[in-house]
Amino acid sequence: MLGDVGAYDRDGVQIERLSFDDLAVTSAVLRWCSRLGMGGFLTNVVFIRNLVRRLSGINILHVVHPAHMSGRSWPVVLVMVGRFFGRKVILDYSGPLVLSRLAGKSALVQKIWRLCDLILVPSKYQEQLINMLGGRAYYRHPPVLPSKIASRVIDRVQPRLLVVSDLEREHNVACAVRAFKLVKQKYPRTELIIVGSGQQRGALEDLVGRERTAGVSFTGELSEENRRRQFENSDIFINCSMVDYLSGATLEALAYGLPVLTTPLGGGLGLFRDRDNIVQLSYSNSVALAERIIELVEDPRLVERLSRRSRETALALERDTVGQGRLEPYRKVLGS
């Protein structure tokens, strides 16, 4: 996904959504050229040609950097093309991992950051990091609308634990697996549902096998309906990420009224308070995580308080998003 391309008029910002397919060569032509060994070259030429045509009618090129792309891939090309034609450019790191892996490792990446008028990041720490390295960063939490989600108040837990995450090393899902084993020794009915995909799935499944721990389910990626069912059927949400950011899944869990056990979130307008609307965890401490889960099993009043406050916090974050407007980054860029 390229991201958003915005234009300003006197009534505000108008946004057009573009996808990679909007600018790419048609599949029929690509198949024909691939037979001649020119598929990749043709794709590149047509893509840039179509992009240049679209640039003629816009003020801002908003480039979303997908997590699976490297720092020298299409997002970099798009930033350079946009700047060459004199357009304002926003680079949007919609996930934290690619940014964490790139920061400080490449002089080219830092030069690309300096070409951007604004860099959107999902973490206050990453905002500070990019600003320190010469970029202009702006923190924005995920675009989840809690008011559209039917929540419930949870006053006791089984527990049925839910992890929704990319299965990558930085998100440390193994910590939740180890904690689950400890909890299950005391509460055998405990279940752990892991939603998501990534490079660590095989290693995590091997870990479950070595520990001989029953009750762990890997679902992979889910449809919106099945994802909703997992949130509705679970009673504790766990985030063990080593990257301090507020993920869309964490915000969803808050909106559904789940008690949230999480490592530092690196955002959220300072709304998060330990044992008020979340239970904050130290990094990579499975024993402490197991103790917090057991505490929730044994303290229904704490569970109910967390559940009620989770929903309130999610709604407060939504009000901030709507109040500032999702268009605030465009206003900042055009006003600079």
Question: What would you note in describing this structure?
Answer:
- The chain is α/β, with parallel strands linked by helices and 336 residues long.
- It has 2 domains: 138 residues, Rossmann fold, CATH 3.40.50; 175 residues, 3-Layer(aba) Sandwich (Rossmann fold), CATH 3.40.50.
- Helix content is 46%, strand content 16%.
- The chain is built from 14 helices and 12 strands.
- It has a 6-stranded mixed beta sheet with strand order 2-1-3-4-5-6, sandwiched between helices. Strands 9-8-7-10-11-12 form a 6-stranded parallel beta sheet, sandwiched between helices.
- Helix 8 crosses helix 12 and helix 11 packs across helix 13.
- The longest helix has 25 residues.
- The radius of gyration is 22 Å and the shape is elongated.
- It starts with a strand and ends with a helix.
- The N terminus is likely disordered.
In short:
By secondary structure, the protein is α/β, with parallel strands linked by helices. It is 46% helix and 16% strand.
